[in-house]
Amino acid sequence: MQAKPINATISVSEQIMPDAVAGIAAAGFKTIICNRPDGEGVDQPGFAEIEAAAKAAGLQAVYQPVVSGKVKDSDAAAFGTLFASLPKPVFAYCRTGTRSATLWSLSEAAQGRPLPEILGATKAAGYDMAAVARRIANGGRTPTDVADATHTVVIIGGGAAGVSLAASLKSRQPELDIAIIDPAEIHYYQPGWTMVGGGIFDPATTAKTMASLIPPGVRWIKAAVAAFEPEKRSVILDGCRVVKYTALVVAPGLKLNWAGIEGLTETLGRNGVTSNYRYDLAPYTWECVQGLKAGRAVFTQPPMPIKCAGAPQKALYLSADHWRRAGRLNDISIDFFNAGAVLFGVAAYVPALMRYIERYHAQLHFQHTLTRVDGPAHRAWFSRTDADGNKTTVEAEFDMMHVVPPQTAPDFIRVSPLADAAGWVDVDQATLRHKTLPGVYGLGDACNAPNAKTAAAARKQAPVVAHNLLKDLGATAEADAIYDGYGSCPLTVERGKIVLAEFGYGGKLLPSFPAWLIDGTQPSHLAWLLKERMLPPIYWQAMLRGREWMASPELAQ
């Protein structure tokens, strides 16, 4: 974290962590403003954590969240009013600092500060607000007739899906002009966080810099998306910049809605409340598991869709296996509260999973949705739905609780013309083209294809989109590539064994290996070795490098 001074009264910054707050106070700041909504990133602490650290350091902390790329004039006016009332100097932050700088620029312009002075101050802090100036000059609307950048292919998202697609396109057509838009500095191997929470992987092995993974020849635009204007083939970025494209691929992942559970953000990372769905919390899961000698462990699963639908119960299995090996299982009661009606959505894998549920003496509670948590009191509340649709509230005590938050498409997708009625990118499930917008494609967690949202799905989707996009650009006359809904969920049922679930649309089993080698419906040590030793290098060195091992797309007949 580095404070970037705009003037003597305000500095802006990228995302800060709670342990940085004492240094902010020592630097003389009096107030912290958070302009980033909770749950925007998988490595992001909640504002409640920052607020607690600020209080301990004698600072005032204020929460004014603004959706990425959605800075409205009313947001800027509210920022200006807030800023005027706060002790100074002020330290404002968001994901990259751009939102905070934009809010300040617009609020100052509305109060009559000359544009050259605004541009000079923000440029000295490292933020180019020239596009904001265009918006101000255009009466509050960002004009798209002038582009700040133009590329043949623009990919939204630098996660597993976006980087894999860029590499796949480059392997097919090396001269293709491609840009990836993503504000994140770090790229995470999120499938590894279950293993971190089980004490198997070091968290550092699941993270690499984004810059090290962008394929050679692909431009990285480090920014957040504000809006789409598909009729003008334009994307508007945070800071009001405009990027034009011939083909647009949308793969931003999904949003973890931590704030969707009352009281959760205030207690995450303490009071025994943890989650493998956040990079900095997965190690706390292992700490909680090791520290629990007796009591009650609660594991939760929210309504679908979620990324890696098996991950909530993977946490249960690895934790219970540790307690079994440590001789503590008889002293620990385990409860799995699942918002769904079944243990796993593909019936063929349920018998093997149920044997482990019985081995660990875990109690299953279906159609129970977590709604509230009181960490200090070690209590949680669930909404239970019975067979007739009636809802009641169920209270549960816990000594440790592993929480999986509800999940949605990112805000900038849900409000865009790309989204279906539920907020997901509206694609044809076979070709992954947008259903109504020419030149637009979707893949990964944010699209509405009815497949499992896993990295394995993205590995299969990327070659399909690459093929069909190049076909639409006239680079090939072959038939369409078809995605069959493949997804994989290696269910870590104990340390050393995995039930390797592989399936496609409609729950059709799509095993990658013959049954004599790995029978996916049964626990397997070989599948464990695949997960532990082979899949991470396959991810980093093959999938993200355009090497499509066992992922070549099928063509329509």
TrEMBL record:
The keyword Flavoprotein appears for this protein: yes
Gene Ontology terms, MF aspect: FAD binding; hydrolase activity; quinone binding; sulfide:quinone oxidoreductase activity
Highest rank taxon of the organism: Bacteria
Residues annotated as domain Beta-lactamase hydrolase-like protein phosphatase-like: 8-110
Cofactor: FAD
Family annotation (PANTHER family): SULFIDE:QUINONE OXIDOREDUCTASE (PTHR10632), SULFIDE:QUINONE OXIDOREDUCTASE, MITOCHONDRIAL (PTHR10632:SF2)
Name this polypeptide is given: Sulfide:quinone oxidoreductase
